[in-house]
Amino acid sequence: MLANTSQMLLRNISDLTGNILIVEPPADELARSLLPELPAPTKLSCYTSNAATAQSWQIPDITCYFSALPEFQQQFDTVVIYYPKSKEQLSLTLAAIAPALTDSSQIFLVGDNKGGIKSLSSHAEKLGLQAHKLDNAKHCLWYCLNGSLAALTKPRFSQQQFTINHTTLNVCSIAGVFNHGKLDTGTALLLNHLQHITKGSVLDFGCGSGVIGAFLKKNNSAINLYCSDVSALATEATKQTLQANNLQGTVITADGLPAKPACFDHIVSNPPFHTGIKTDYSISETFISQSKDRLNPGGSLTLVANTHLAYQTLLEQTFGKVTVLAKANGFVIYQTIKR
Ligand SMILES: C[S@@+](CC[C@H](N)C(=O)[O-])C[C@H]1O[C@@H](n2cnc3c(N)ncnc32)[C@H](O)[C@@H]1O
After folding, report:
1. Model confidence pLDDT, tens digit, residues 41-53
2. Best of 229, 236, 311 for a ligand 1 pocket test (most atoms within 8 Å of beta carbon)
3. Which domain holds residue 294?
4. What's the CATH number where 81 sits?
5. If you measure from the C-alpha of residue 207 to the centroid of ligand 1, how many angstroms do you get, rounded to a whole number?
6. Which residues in the chain belong to E strands, given as ranges?
7. Is the CB of 270 under 6 A from ligand 1?
8. What is the pLDDT of residue 191?
9. Which of 48, 64, 129, 323 could form an SS bridge with 147, CB 3.0 to 4.6 Å?
């Protein structure tokens, strides 16, 4: 399957020359479709912070940079950036790739019409850059970007302090991490309903900035904490959050439940229901159905979801009995116990 944005990139393949870098593409079939179409001696690299995308770019003859922030060992003639979720993230991405560009490098951007790319020109202007629209098809836009990136501020993680139920936490994050700089209303509600977790191995699945795991570990030093997320930006934020609160935990970047350890005593999550800009329940459905096998007998799964999401049925199908611990502000807290 190819995302519309990737189809747009292939439609404009003649713009790609020399040493090519593709930045933050979705986890689709682009790498396999693009590589055979490029004339020699073109070289192809990808930068991604997403474990699922990194997996789809594990192909001989392609260099895949998979990390929170990239450090390139080469310079690129052509860069294609998939338009990110926020303008702030775009500024950080441009600053991150700047050291790998030469004066003659060409920068292209591709994005879904519904994903914010329509405001690229005005945002580029604020950065002292010029964006020119080159193509419009498949509900997507294809732009080139001109100007110097040298003055852009180097990406850095920032720290905020939140007090939740008398627990004060320093939370680190960066644009691109879920709800950057804010505490999600659903997560705040979830943190009010975790008193049953006092010891054992605990997984914070889809940890984002690590606020749930840090909260649990700070209040229950006996727990053996694991935090996982598909995003390397999120897991780097979580590592920094744990460090900023002098807490210990194992942080894992993985698509879906991490392979190790085999089982947990408790799993806690504010699970994802978006992939890019689209609503996507499949990640949470897989997570819920696989959780049962990854819990020790008597272990619990506690999660928060928007009330409009039909997770109760799925939880009942998988676990049998489901308890609704709370409902407020459009969110519901579900708890199930593995029998
Ligand atoms: C709703 S956010 C919750 C973040 C954090 N726990 C909080 O409450 O602020 C969901 C998180 O799931 C992560 N995620 C999305 N797809 C995933 C996948 N396939 N495997 C693991 N984590 C995923 C996202 O990167 C995001 O950080």
Report:
1. 889 999 999 999 9
2. 229
3. 176-337
4. 3.40.50.150
5. 6
6. 19-23, 43-48, 62-66, 76-82, 101-112, 130-137, 140-146, 158-164, 167-173, 201-205, 224-229, 250-253, 264-269, 274-275, 278-279, 295-306, 323-328, 331-337
7. yes
8. 97
9. 129
